[in-house]
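[SOLVED] Need 3D model of a two-part complex

Original post:
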Amino acid sequence: MAAEVRIAPLWPMVAGQTQSEFRRLLRVWEFTGFGLAFPLVLYVFIGLQGSGPGAAQYHKYALASMCSYAVVNIALSTFGITVANERGSRMDALMRATPVRPVAPLIGKTVAAVVFALAALLLLYAAGILLAGISMRPEEWFNLTWRLLLAIIPFICMGFAIGYLSGPSGAVLAVNLILLPMSFASGIFFPIDGLPTFIKDIAPYLPMYHLGHLAWNAVGVPYNDIWKSVLWLAGYSVFFLAVTLWAVRREDDRRFS
Amino acid sequence: MPDSTGSSLASTASAEAPTAGPVVELVDAHKKFGSVEALRGVSLAVRPGELVGFLGPNGAGKTTAISLMIGLRRPTAGRALLFGLDPADLRARSRTGVMLQESGIPLTLKVREVVDLFRTYYPKPLPTDSVVEMAGLGEFQHKLVKDLSGGQRQRVYFALAICGDPDALFLDEPTVGLDTATRRSFWDQVRGFKRRGKSIVLTTHYLDEADALADRVVVIDHGLIVAEDSPEGIRRLVPGKKVAFSWPGVTAAALAGLPLEGLVIDGPRVSFLTSDAERVLRTLFAKGVSITDLEVAGAGLEEAVLVLTGGR
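Solution:
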């Protein structure tokens, strides 16, 4: 019998999924605009102060801070809020009934989030150069960029966990309730020295603290624990991936068993 | 594994299709949700090229049955097979198209884009133009999905279900909420797809829909199949005539002793089913009852299912 049993190749699936994610980003401006504009506005408020001899270094430091915030915001929103929405609208049920391989939407979303994050970084760089007159060596720009785009991974995993653990409206709340306090506690908005002692004690255990230190180090702030931070971020990736898998399994038991 | 669809099931294959096994098969399938038994032992085989209509009241187990067939849920006991495989197997799903009762689609894509996206999921998809045409989406193809009306979105779901040129198509309540004209054009689309030799499983609580489309009607109630036959066969299972008339001051007692079923009295309006309309009317006329607006019609599928499912 000629009834051959075949499944579709993976890469066209991934390409189609990635293209769809880009289209969504380009069309949903209330989402994309927030991811791009909010860090920019924050940067204008807190990143441009100071003059005199220390100002140049402060400006670089503040730019790296805001870039860290922008990247984490995009990872958490893209994954947390979108995944929760897809579950809420039962789009996931339709997808599950098709022969799409689950890894394809995952890769598509990741590529889109990384490119989105890159766009946000470039916008902040432009603001830094134009408004604060920042001038950095090429390798400083380069290091800041690739470090942040690589360190986005644990936050993508975290966003995924949020998306699977909360509903569509809960996810927006969860992302903001996590992102803002975590940013403050990690010294992203204000230097960590000014924070209350108990927060200072917690800070080294937060993933954003480590992302921040890698970013500041890229623009010239001395930091001796680079590998320790890399390990922390890797550990957080594994942790949130495990939480996500657990949540996916819980979802399977509830809705698809 | 060149052919996993036929040989292992050849023994259960129907007489009409001796060379190919059933496209879908449920074998004594049970499904419990907590303490609720949604399916209590359903066995069914859908043959290649057949359109099977699942009929039954809400909560009868239709959607649960379809969920087992497409692998969205797993039977608590018994088996579900799709092309002889586990329904969740990607090889089985690659030959299957599905329209779910409630599901989302990417709202920020244009119709044509979402069809193109879903085409990448299938090994041998139909050309996008054919899909758009078969689903009647020509004039909407460059619109965003979020700007479509309910009926137009339903066409998109249909397009997504057929874009992979599936051998088996599952439609769960596909015309809920559509107006009559849209429903009829949807039926034409389903018939068009069936002419390609495809198997289709449809659930509906619109009886005219099953009547218009199905080769075989499966009536399901309380998680059990209560009847299974051609639409004509199902109709033969119940009293032949539907009688209605107006009789001011009518009471159920006044009709006691007559051979009728499914009596409904709504003010002066009386309606019931009977296998002997002549005798009932003769008796009433003999009593000197004056009735108006008399209607006598052959009972349809609707009445048949009402009787088969105990009037729920």
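Edit: Chain A touches chain B through 34 residues (CB under 8 Å).
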